[in-house]
Specification:
Length: 70
Amino acid sequence: MGLPNKDEVEGKFDQVKGKTKETIGRAIDDEELEAEGGAEHAGGKVQEGFGKVRRNVGEAIEDVGDAISR
């Protein structure tokens, strides 16, 4: 498993940021902030998942290239 790519890192960051907004929104009874945080958290999960798929495809291509060059 390689290092996380930009999408994975940004996705994780958005998840944490979204979860924080959700928690603060809930604590101060701000439904709009809570909903915004939930959407940001979900978007972060999608972006992280996309990054993982992209990295796995890249690693698979590298493996094929290594196998061909042997």
